[in-house]
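Q: Given only this backbone (124 positions), what sequence would you predict?
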């Protein structure tokens, strides 16, 4: 079983890789056959395909910050609430998300689901 510390470390590495726009670094955190649904309700994608599209589409300088500490579970899941701030098409934009991930016995992500809706996206 994966420890709470391993879950939190993997989640932090994911956030750090997002801030670095490091698609390969993020993909390396996923198990073969891992999936991404970001946001929930827009379709489930293979992690490599989904993350390449999502992270590759982020504007330069997007900044991801935790809103609360990363939460781990008694087994193979963890969650984190964060805010991403960016300039999207010339407009300052903020997205508040809750990402929930499941892990395999090796500590690799098997499933990532991002929860945010239209009201969680604001512009200045």
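A: Predicted residues:
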């Amino acid at each position: 079983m994966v420890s709470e510390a391993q879950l939190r470390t993997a989640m932090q590495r994911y956030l750090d890789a997002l801030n670095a726009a490091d698609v390969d670094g993020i993909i390396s955190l996923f198990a073969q056959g891992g999936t991404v649904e970001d946001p929930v309700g827009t379709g489930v994608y293979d992690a490599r395909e989904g993350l390449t599209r999502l992270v590759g589409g982020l504007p330069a300088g997007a900044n991801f910050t935790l809103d609360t500490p990363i939460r781990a579970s008694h087994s193979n899941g963890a969650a984190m609430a964060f805010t991403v701030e960016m300039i999207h098409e010339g407009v300052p934009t903020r997205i508040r998300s809750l990402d929930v991930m499941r892990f395999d016995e090796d500590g690799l992500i098997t499933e990532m689901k991002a929860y945010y809706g239209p009201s969680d996206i604001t512009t200045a």
